[in-house]
Amino acid sequence: MRDDTILFVCLHGAAKSLVAATHLERLAAERGARMRAEFAGTEPDPELAPAAVAGLLAEGLDVPGQRPRRVTEEDMRAASRVIAFGCDPGAIAPGVPVERWDDVPAVSEDYRAARDAIVSRLSALLAGGNTFTVDPEEQICDIS
Question: Is the dihedral of CA 76, 81, 87, 88 positive or negative?
């Protein structure tokens, strides 16, 4: 990963983190921002969530060849920002700040609501600039 990489982590690495990473890359490209998004899970599923893939495809965003994978300490330490959805990856890399977006609805229950919540936060993140410093006003958890 590079300094301009945001790592999205969810339990299964198959839905919320995928949707967030895919939309961040789309939004960044639209704004001419140079950044990369990665997604992973603390307990990865063998395949991507069908609801996430179908929702992304309906928006013209294809994710061929992507698979959930386990988040590693190296992933977390290399990312400029780590954002977690409903899981606690802090023990994997003690001391790495983890921003928690735990209030995002389940993709399997309501793709559109989950996507809208994620995209709203991503847009706010991008509006703040392309550098990723920890803002004390944001919901940040340093889980060690």
Answer: positive
